[in-house]
Amino acid sequence: MDDLLNRLERLPMSRVQIRLLFMGGLGYTFDAMDGAVIAFVLAAIIKPFHLTNGEIGLLGSALLIGYLVGAFLSGTLGDLIGRRTIIVWSLGFYSIATLISAFAGNWQFFFVFRVLAGIGTGAQSAIIAPYLSEFINSKVRGRYVGALAGFFSFGFVFAALLGYFLIPTSPLGWRWVIIITALPVLLLIWWRRGLPESPRWLLIRNRVPDAVAVIEQLERTVAQATGRPLPPVERIVSSQATVAIGGTFKSNLASLWLKRVARTTMMMWVLWFAITFAYYGFFTWIPTLLVKSGLTITKSFGYSIVIYLAQIPGYYSAAWLNERLGRKYTIVLYMALGAVSALLMALFHSNAAVVGFGFCLSFFMNGSYAGIYAYTPEVYPTSYRTTGMGVASAVGRVGGILAPLIIGFTYARIGFSGVFAVSTVVLAVGVIVVAWLGINTRSKTLESITAEELQLKT
């Protein structure tokens, strides 16, 4: 096993890994587009569906309810039946449910299929990052997975553009937007043929011949892509840091709270809850809050596009810092600056201030995610890596579910300032916990991180 892991670790970056990045990134783009478009749809269906504030909040949470289920299932099943299988099936499930939701005649029907679509998007979101992290060497893994998370930003920008140009044009505009977000079903044929299974997962399930076949194919294609012989194999990785055979559903869940891992799990759950609460509270409500503040729906969507565009430099600046500062310190820095931005939005209410500080909040919260998506898969062993990622992501979705409801309640009583004051406090708690309990993973192999965390010798 050691030899195979070291052969995988020595592979240089090439168009082979870039192709995998693009394939996984497209999944994240459509996931984000589907999640972001609800903010624009809600503003458009308030009158035709006669929505109350409570119903708006419930619809805003629908996708997140599905996310919770999907993230949990994809994480636990990804360790049992394979990363690739979950990626392919979750994409099909999401696309079908999303398409059906476009034909909703009332908010209850819309709610049900938004939940079902969320199961697919939650599964995609939780499985792709750990899957790709298992292919990349330690020197560039943080930047690579951070760049993968950056594809979420394109989904948000596309959703904002669709909301701006299509939704206001006709009463059916919101339905056409949702139909467009179901298009990733077309990726299924490509994915089924082009995605290999993770060799690290194959090894942990004792499928050594299959792992050898994948690694040999990777070696051939990387050598062809670079036009150079592969570097010599060095003894970097020791399988002593991993469990030889993967566990069961029950044992994998129990492993998250082993004495030596419990600290990491607690930190990850708080981190995911805090960032997802602030993120979905802000992005689900921002167009509606702007409309309620007196802007027209078209102008509100225009302001939202500006705010959403901040995601792109936010993600990719943090992806770059992942290898300079390390994932832990990138997360702390960006969440802290996000908390400051939320506080400033609570204090200043002019249109210019809302857009300016909203741009900053968008920049730093999305930058935090570039760190989190790289960080979470690293701190769990291969045998329950996707379980750790999936359950942490599911806990985060609890924050995402509560955020629109709490913000709807808060806005009705203490207004615009209260919304962002709550976000400030939640983000500050996340910063403190990560700074206190987080470990440094920069430039370390996945197996060496596990060895340090479990206090093993490599």
Q: Overall pLDDT, averaged?
A: 86
Low-confidence stretches: none
Q: What is the third-level CATH name, the topology?
A: Growth Hormone, Chain: A
- Give the tally of structural domains: 1
Gyration radius over CA: 21 Å
Taken from the alpha-carbon principal axes, the silhouette is globular
Q: What is the percent of helical residues? A: over 70%
CATH architecture: Up-down Bundle
Structural class: mainly alpha
Strands, count: 0
Order of helices and strands: HHHHHHHHHHHHHHHHHHH
Multimerization status = single chain
Distance between the termini: 14 Å
The main pleated sheet reads as: none
The CATH class, by name, is: Mainly Alpha
β-strand amount: under 5%
Q: State the fourth-level CATH superfamily.
A: MFS general substrate transporter like domains
* Tally of contiguous helical segments: 19
Notes on the protein architecture:
The radius of gyration is 21 Å and the shape is globular. The two termini are 14 Å apart. The protein has 19 helices and no strands. It has one domain (2-231, 241-453): Growth Hormone, Chain: A. The longest helix has 53 residues, at 385-437. It is 78% helix and 0% strand. Helix 6 (141-149) crosses helix 17 and helix 15 (311-324) runs antiparallel to helix 16 (327-347).
